[in-house]
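Hi P.,

Sorry for the delay on this. The queue was packed all week, but I finally got your sequence through. Input first:
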Amino acid sequence: MRHKQGAARPAAAAIVLTGSEESRRQRQWPFFLQAAFFGALLTVPACGDGPSSPSGEVPIIRDFGTKIVYGTSRLLDVEELGAHCDELRGTFNECGSVCAPVPGPCITVCAFTCENIPR
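Then the structure:
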């Protein structure tokens, strides 16, 4: 399509950001980082004490049969969790995954786990 000299040309298909929009866009996290961050916040107990359990019992967040997730709070007694895992003849992991052993979508968060528990 030819345009006469001096005639208005159609606008280019470009997005022009104002200063505030541009700085907001630079501060915005990619979606996967947002999902991981907010997912991690949801899995960490709000008060920081970990899951509540009666005295003498080990807190268990999830039990997958061959894998147990104790929790993510650093206030949990690591020695007690390790001893519990030893009783189950599993492998204690201080930074295990909260994900189920089967494939599927899951966020990556460090958690105390007992893995490889024999059935």
